[in-house]
Amino acid sequence: MFKKRQASILVSSLILLGLLGGVMVLQNITFNAQLKSRSQMIILTKLDQIQLQASLAYHKSHHQNDKFGHVKTTVVKNNIVIELGNKTYTRELLV
Question: Please, what sign has the CA dihedral across residues 16, 17, 22, 23?
Answer without folding.
Answer: positive
